[in-house]
Each structure stands twice: as structure tokens, then as C-alpha cells.
Amino acid sequence: MPANTMNEDLKRERQRCSFDPKELTYLLDGGEEKTEERRQREKFFLDDPELSETAPSDYLSHKEKYEHAVKKACIVFKKVQQLQAQGKAGMQNFREVLGGQLGSAILRDGNPLGLHYVMFIPTIMGQGTIEQQAEWISKAWNLEIIGTYAQTELGHGTFIRGLETTATYDPATEEFVLNSPTLTSYKWWPGGLGHTANYAVVVAQLYSQGICHGIHPFIVQLRDEETHLPMPGFENVRIPWNYMLMKNGKVLKDGSYVKSPSSKLTYGTMIFVRVVIVQDAANYLRKAVTIATRYSAVRHQSHIKESAPEPQILDFVTQQHKLFPQLATYFALHYSGAWLWDMYNNVTSELESGELDRLPELHALACCLKAVSAADAAQGIETCRLACGGHGYMSCSSLPITYGLVTAMVTYEGENTVLLLQTARYLMKAWQNCLDGQPLTPSVQYLNSVRRSFGGVYHKSVPWIIASMQRIAAGKIETAHRHMNDKIKRGVNSEDAWNETSIELVAASEAHCKAFIVETYYNSVQQIVPSVSQQLGKALTELCELYAVNTLLKNIGDLLRYSNVTTGDLENLQRWLEELLAAIRPNAVGIVDGFDINDAIIASPLGAYDGNVYERLFAEVSKSPLNAKPVNESFHKYLKPLLKSKM
Ligand SMILES: CCCCCCCC/C=C\CCCC(=O)SCCNC(=O)CCNC(=O)[C@H](O)C(C)(C)COP(=O)(O)OP(=O)(O)OC[C@H]1O[C@@H](n2cnc3c(N)ncnc32)[C@H](O)[C@@H]1OP(=O)(O)O
Ligand SMILES: Cc1cc2nc3c(=O)[nH]c(=O)nc-3n(C[C@H](O)[C@H](O)[C@H](O)COP(=O)(O)OP(=O)(O)OC[C@H]3O[C@@H](n4cnc5c(N)ncnc54)[C@H](O)[C@@H]3O)c2cc1C
User: Fold this and answer.
1) What are the Acyl-coenzyme A oxidase N-terminal domain coordinates in residue numbering (predicted)?
2) Of 95, 280, 504, 613, whose CB count within 10 A is highest?
3) Is 413 a catalytic residue?
């Protein structure tokens, strides 16, 4: 590959960008100093020869992939420890390096230590007493033990009250006896459970004095700390009394049970991971859209005008319509995720002082935001893949693997439909409160004002779109509430009525979440614009407008159903969409440059900063062992005899 050459199209794109991409980078990182720290941190890991790929892992066996992953995870861990010793890394960096964008670039096939940092340690922090934290956290932090989070069983993932593993307290020995007696009670899915972890937080039904007290977390040793041999299986495994995490519900030594202030505090780790997923989904989407945007600026194909040369495919408006909403969606999820993270931290400190009031609202928002961000990021990444034509299908483009990672988010940490129904539960209560004149929490305040007016004359502004989306959400919430209550009045019991109305409940929940995202995104941009250059402010505003217009236009049916919008208004919206695509076009490459994703994290010949797509693609395929010899052995073994026999 020619060294140090920059693709001419990308050079031109960079010259025409109206703002300085560095300004966007600093904004996203939280300042120039933070950008420098991040870049140094990335360099520290990515420049390590032991961590860089010698060959793409696609050509390794399953076993080899696992072994490479463990080796790299250990190197990464030691390097994080070095940073820690220099005061340059904390828990957040562990998560970033071991689970986030940087981690997934180093450990392309998954991180055997991921659950240790993302769930095992956070569960001990959130569910353990001070003494338990003191005992376990430092061991876990220093990797003297390796943990995972074992909740899901072969028979149950969603319905955790149905878990079958039991933990029965034996006051005579002051131990819990854990049992997974059936095939369906096998712990199934926990990351690292197979070969890596030697401890787990096991979620089990607690029995004491003959009474079941529901699910609780227990620390269980899985493997010998020296030999790593598995401990005897899950039949009557005894663990000491203080291995039950007892910050919330407790069993006293005599076996009496002390209830938690809320049984849902046991579900705290799930809220934490859902909150983290929103940011993570956004980051994967920005990686995919960086690849597809740079590729679309370099790739020339077909004609717009017969008389002109083949254009960059980014000049096709349909291509812009595929990619620019993904750029905007990244920002929408980024700002909503940041908002949710703040709320999570505030509510968590309130919980520490015994205030539980805001937990239901946090749960409702975390559920729908996790569901919508995972689904939209997955769909957006798939759109980016398709936007790269055949080359997007290639594994080396990194788009299929990125899609694979994000589509898993739709299922884990609460399957999306199930989570949207949790939010719907909250919305049904909110609507009832609204009807009864009861106070509403901030995220559903809009129900009051929308209930008073279903009107609103079109004007070309994001606030009009927010009001329209709130109208749609309120309309859907009202419809689902009314239909469910009609059924109940006709004698259907409330559980069946819920199930029969669940399509509308899920739709109401999604609409509520989309309205929340647009509003949060808009408010964030409004706050940012005065503090950045006029050019960047304009670019950020255009993206926000695009997200709002495009989201509304994807819901034309709902808009017609729940508002007094006219067909003329819809035409105005379509024109606005097209104007925004044209306005964003010159800045598209600048925006993805502003994301400042290191080429080693991009890991795609289609999306490198220099735009040498074809040279890099060629170099990539030449790494395949299949291309090492001109004739593969299988020709002599199988094809040749077959060809001969036909003669
Ligand atoms: C940079 C780092 C990147 C990190 C990226 C992450 C990578 C990690 C990779 C993989 C991790 C994957 C790990 C897992 O998947 S672990 C397993 C996760 N499992 C789940 O999420 C299970 C989903 N199921 C549930 O959450 C629940 O069972 C349920 C669906 C909510 C139903 O529970 P239950 O039947 O008990 O509850 P009800 O429906 O009856 O509701 C009762 C009331 O409780 C409220 N509720 C429910 N959950 C919570 C909660 N978490 N917090 C607060 N309140 C909660 C619910 O709203 C009801 O309230 P009400 O007032 O209406 O009665
Ligand atoms: C990659 C990956 C990693 C994971 N890591 C872990 C881990 O580390 N630790 C761990 O404990 N678990 C882990 N899990 C398990 C994960 O949390 C569960 O798979 C998830 O919670 C979904 O549960 P399920 O598989 O039982 O799906 P199911 O609940 O069986 O879902 C199947 C279908 O039934 C529907 N459904 C179920 N209940 C309802 C309902 N009440 N109303 C309407 N529809 C419903 C769903 O919408 C879905 O369409 C992981 C899973 C994956 C895929």
C-alpha cells in the first residue's frame, strides 16, 4: 500500500467542511485535555505489539479465539493496572478498556473478563454490605478472583421470579445450601462462566425457615483458585452465611429474614447495565457510520448526469438518507445516554439514603431507552452495512461483527419487548394519575398539557416536532389505556386484558421514548450551541433537526391519527428533510472525523482515515490462509477425482 497517501476525495471533503472537526472532538470528550488523555490511553493499548492482531481472528478456530482473547485480556488488565498506579485510570477506564469501544477493538471476539467488570464488581458494590464490599472488591479489582453474573437459566431468562436455583439457609451450620436440581435450572449464558471465572454472583430463590423469600444474590466459588478445576456441580453446594449479598434483604444467623426496603433493589445491577448499554450502543453506531460515510465519499459509481463523471455515492440523496439520520441518531443516543447516566447517579445516591421515590421513573426510562437505543443502533448499523454494497458484507469491513455485537443488546439485559412493557406499566399508571388529577413525574408531565390540547398549527421548528411526538405518545398511551379498560369492563380479567392490549402498549412505550429522546437531544443542543463556534453550532443544530424531522416522518400514520396535521404540512416536512440532507452533505466527512475514532478501532479497510479503500481491501484479503497457495489440497483430494470420473 502506498505510504502516507491520502485519498483525493477525502482531501476535498475535509477542505469543504464548514467547521473544525477538532472542535467537535473536544466537545464530545469534554475538553482538549480529555481528548489528549483519551488518545494517549488508546495509543498505550493499541501500539502494544502484543495486542495488535498478527492475522484476523476470522481464520482462527473457536478454541484459538478463546485462548487469544484470554491472553489479550490479561495483557490489557496489566496495562490498566500500570495506568492505575500512575493515577491515570479508574473504574470507568476499566469498563472502557475491557468492555467499550476500545476494548472491543482489542478483543474483537469478546472479552472473557468483561462480565467481571461490568456486572460482578458492580453487583458487589450495589448489593453487598460495607463488610462484604471490603472483603470482595479489592480481591476482584486486583484480579485475585475472576467473577461473573449468573442469573439466567436454561429455562428462564426474562421471568426471573421463575428461576429454579435455590439457596436454603441451614442455621445449624450457618451456611446456605445451593441447588440447581433440574436441567432447566442450569445457569446458562453468563459470560466467562465456561472457562474463565472462578467465582460468580449466583441469583437464587432464598429459602429460610421453610419460607421462600424470592430471588437474592449469592457469591459462589466455581473453580479452585490454584488448579482452576471446577468445584463439584450445583447439587447441595454449601457456602458460608456471609456469602449472601445482604445490603438489602438479609438472613440473620438464626434464620429470620429481614426484608429489603424494596424487593426491586435486588434488580439494581440490571438497571446499571441498561444505562451503560445506551452509551455503548451509540458508540458502536458512530463507528459504523464513520466507516460507511468515509467509504461513500471514496466510492464512485453510476451516474447522476450522463454527461458528468461517476459521482461519489455520497452524492446520491438516497445514500444521504441512509447515512445522515444515523449520524444524527448517534448524537440523539449520546445525549439521552448522558442524561440517563446523570439520573442514574442521582437516584443511586438517593437510594443510599433510603429515598426510593424516583426508582420507578428511573426503571421506566432505563428500560425504554435501553430497548430503543439497542434496536435503533442495530438497525442503523445494518443500514450502514447495506449502504456499503458488497464490500459491507465482507467480514473485514467490521460491519457484520459490529451488527452482531449490537443486535445481542436487543436480547440481553432484558429482552426489548419485555422492557418496553415494563415502561408501559409505568405509563398506564401515569395516564390514570393524569385522569385522576394526581401529580405526574417530570418525564410524563407532557401528558397533562397534551390532554388539554390535541391541536397545534405547523411551524418549521423542533419544538413543534417535540409537541407532535408527545401528542402521538399521549394518543397511544390513551388508546392502550382505554382499550385495556374496555376489555376489563367487558369482564376480561386484568392480566388477560394486559396481554390482549400488549401490541398497543409496546407502541405507546416506544412513542414515549422517542419523544423523550428528541426533547433531550434538542435541550442538550440548545445548551451547547452558545458555547461553540457558530459553524459547529449550525452543524449540530442541523443534525438535531434532521433527527426530529426524520423520526416524525417515519411515523406519518401516527401523526395523521393523533394530530391535526395536514397533507400540506407533511409536504413541508419532506422538503425540510431534503434541505437538511443537502445542508449536512458538505460536513458529513468532517462530522465523522470529529468522532476521532482511531483507525485501529475502526478496523475496517472501508473506513480508515486515509480513505485508501481498495489498497486496504486487497491487503486484507491477502491475509487469508486460503490465498497462501495457488492450489488448495482439496482440489487433489476431492475435485480432481470427481472431474476425472465424469470424463
Ligand atoms: C463500556 C461497557 C459496556 C457494557 C456493555 C454491556 C456488556 C455486557 C454483556 C452482556 C451482559 C448481559 C448480562 C445479562 O443479560 S444478565 C441477565 C439480565 N436479565 C434480565 O435483564 C432479566 C429481565 N427481566 C427482568 O428484569 C424482570 O424479571 C422483569 C421483566 C422486570 C419482571 O420482573 P418481575 O416479574 O419481578 O416484576 P413485575 O413485572 O411483576 O414488576 C414488579 C414491579 O417491579 C418493578 N420493577 C421491575 N424491575 C425493576 C427494576 N430493575 N428496578 C426497579 N423496579 C423494577 C416493576 O416496574 C413493577 O413495579 P409496579 O410498581 O408496577 O408493581
Ligand atoms: C450475548 C448474551 C449474553 C448474555 N449474558 C448473560 C450473563 O452474563 N448473565 C446472565 O445471567 N444472562 C445473560 N444472558 C441472558 C439474557 O439476559 C437473556 O437471554 C435475556 O434476558 C432474555 O431472556 P430469554 O432468553 O429467557 O428470552 P425469552 O424471555 O424466552 O424471550 C423469548 C421471546 O418471548 C417473549 N416474551 C417473554 N416474556 C414475555 C412477556 N412477559 N411478555 C411478552 N413477551 C414475552 C420475548 O419478547 C421474546 O420474543 C445473555 C444473553 C445473550 C444473548
Assistant:
1) 20-146
2) 280
3) yes
Q: Which of 281, 312, 253 is nearest to 407 (CA)?
A: 281
- C-alpha distances in angstroms, 545 versus 165, 230, 268? 50, 56, 35
pLDDT digits (tens, 9 = 90+) for 580-631: 999 999 999 999 999 999 999 999 999 999 999 999 999 999 999 999 999 9
**From 109-118, 359-368, 379-388, the region with the lowest mean pLDDT:** 109-118
Tens of pLDDT, residues 43-80: 999 999 998 865 678 889 999 999 999 999 999 989 98
Q: Is the Cβ atom of 421 under 6 angstroms away from ligand 2?
A: yes
Q: How confident is the model at residue 332 (pLDDT cuts 50, 70, 90)?
A: very high
Catalytic residue among 42, 153, 164, 413: 413
Burial class (CB in 10 A: 0-12, 13-18, 19+), 224: exposed
pTM (predicted TM-score): 0.97
Which contiguous run of DSSP H or E holds residue 104? helix 101-106
Buried-exposed string 17-38: b where 16+ CB fall within 10 A, e elsewhere: bebebebbbbbbbeeeeebeeb
Residue-level length of the chain: 647
Residues framing ligand 1 (Cβ under 6 A): 95-96, 99-100, 114, 118, 149, 151-152, 158-161, 191, 264, 267, 270-271, 273, 276-277, 280, 359-360, 363, 412-414, 418, 422, 425
Whole-number pLDDT of residue 81: 86
Atom index in ligand 1 nearest the CA of residue 419 equals 30
479 is in an annotated binding site: no
- 268 CA: nearest ligand 1 atom: 51
Q: Note the Cα 4 to chain centre separation in Å.
A: 35
152 annotated as a binding-site residue = yes
